[in-house]
Amino acid sequence: MAAVTEAEAQYLHVLSAFLAMEPVNSVISLARGCTGGSITDIAQRFFWEICVKASANGNGSYAKKLLKKLINEVELEYGEVLDEVYEEYALYMSASSSKEDTLVKENRRITKFISFLFPEGSYNHPSCPRSRKLVIPLQCSLNMLEGDTGCCIWPSSLFLSEFVLSFPELFTNKACFEVGSGVGLVGICLAHVKAKKVILTDGDLLTLANMKLNLERNHLNYDDESPKQPGEAAHTTRVKCIHLPWETASESELSEYCPDIVLGADVIYDPSCLPHLLRVLVALLRKPTKTDNGSLKTEDKDTTQQGRSPVVAYIASVIRNADTFNAFLTLVDQMDLSITDLTAELRPRFELLPYMHSYDRSSVKLFSISFR
């Protein structure tokens, strides 16, 4: 594979940031880095071309905002704005009262493309595509303040996705269960590294429906408890989507899933939900064994160690409220679980989202939870 020049890599960052709908100031800043600080005709033409293409993805409102910022920046520098840029912005302005723009104002969901960019020297890494770029389209909420938080991309899900792609050997051929799966980003990455089975769950039905749509957009068929189809490849990842409100999930229901690994991103946020979350984690971390009559019996923490690997949970979280996190630690201790901070030890090997200035990787902590 031919080496990518520094200029090509920089423009790839600009394109990736635009498609991920990063803040427009960040996208403009990345473009300045490609041209030595000023916004040249080449940079303008690049924006114009990708903005035109992006309008077909239904994200015209964002493209209009970026074009406006681009024109203002060039004019502040007493530069010359390309006619094509003015014309493109005029088209967006003329459509400002259209049905599409009205839908945007009514909290219509939009499409973000999250591009994981593998660096030079990662060609032989198991999760690295031939193009060294894994692009994941996701339908997301435009405004998470309108009660649609499950359809937003949170920093811990980005971190956990980088973690999965950096350490595929931890997840390949493993049955993985995610609590609070949101838009499904982590699950899509688990399928990419060929987890044996991926079970995605959420307690909100609208979030679950959006997640299923995202799986389809990424060419993943979610499984509604159906058996493997004849002729299905042995390495094909089976993905299930389960409606799982933590407060009503029963231990017998949870014990049927038998995961090897449990994952969760930004699930430590509401003190009232923590007892339910911990009860779910305890049920999932207990591995069931078969009794003499063939029924399943839940293992305790001692028998878990006899001839089989214990189940482990990987929880990524931004600690936004110290009291909430301390309440979580107290419950972990009361339920005889062990929690370990793995942030330094298992920090993602690669910085796969270098263009994403809105994502503060250093704010996320990674913990493992298991029975003592």
In a few lines, what is going on in this structure?
It is built from twelve helices and twelve strands.
Key descriptive features of the protein:
alpha/beta, 8-stranded mixed sheet, two-stranded antiparallel sheet, 12 strands, 2 domains, Rossmann fold, 372 residues, 12 helices, single chain
Q: Can you walk me through this structure?
A:
- This protein has 372 residues and is of the alpha/beta class.
- It folds into two domains: 6-105; 110-371, 3-Layer(aba) Sandwich (Rossmann fold).
- The chain has helices at residues 6-19, 24-34, 41-55, 60-76, 83-94, 99-105, 155-166, 185-192, 205-217, 251-255, 274-285, 322-334; strands at 110-117, 133-140, 175-179, 197-202, 222-223, 238-243, 261-265, 288-290, 296-298, 312-318, 337-341, 364-371.
- Helix 4 crosses helix 5 (83-94).
- It is elongated.
- This is Calmodulin-lysine N-methyltransferase.
What is the CATH architecture descriptor of the largest domain? Answer: 3-Layer(aba) Sandwich
CATH topology of the largest domain: Rossmann fold
Average pLDDT, rounded to a whole number, is 85
N- to C-terminal separation? Answer: 47 Å
Strand order of the largest sheet: 5-6-4-3-7-10-12-11
Number of domains: 2
Number of strands: 12
The SSE order reads HHHHHHEEHEHEHEEHEHEEEHEE
User: How many helical stretches?
Assistant: 12
Radius of gyration: 23 Å
Q: Strand count, sense and closure of the main sheet?
A: 8 strands, mixed
**What class do helices, strands and sheet pairing give?**
alpha/beta
Low-confidence stretches at least 5 residues in length (pLDDT < 50)? 225-235, 300-306
- CATH superfamily of the largest domain, by name, is Vaccinia Virus protein VP39
The share of residues in extended strands comes to: 15-25%
**What best-fitting shape do the alpha-carbon axes yield?**
elongated
* Percentage of residues in helical conformation: 25-40%
CATH class category name of the largest domain: Alpha Beta
